[in-house]
Amino acid sequence: MTTSILLKVDQRAKRVISVLYRILIVVYGFMLFYLFQERNELFEYLLVSLVYFVVFLIAHGKEGFFSYFRLITDYLFIFFIVRKIPIDNFYVSVLIFLPILNSSNHTSRKRSSLLYLIPILYLSIYRKFSLFIIIPYVLFFIINMFGVIRFMYISFNEHLNSLIDNFLISPESVEKPHKIYEKAIDVFNQSSLIFFEVDKIMCFKIKNENIIPVNASLFIWNFTVDDDLISQIVNSPKESYFAFHSNLIINGISFPKNYLLTYRIADTIYCYFILPRKQNFIFDNELMPYFNELVAPFFSRTSKIFEAYSERKRLGIEAIVEMESKISYVQNAKSSMHFIRNKLGPLSNYLAMITDYEQSDSKANKSALKAIIDAERSKLSTSVDEILKRAHYILDRSNNPFLVNKLSDHSIKKLYSEVKRVWESYFNVFVPSLNWNVTRDDYVIKFNTIGLDFVLVNWINNMKKYGGGKQFVTLDEDSQFIILDFSNSIKDLIGATDAVHAFQSNDRIEILQRNTHGIVEIIDFLNQMNISYNAHIESNKLHLILKFIKHHNK
Question: Where is the chain membrane-spanning (predicted)?
Answer without folding.
Answer: 16-36, 42-59, 89-108, 129-153
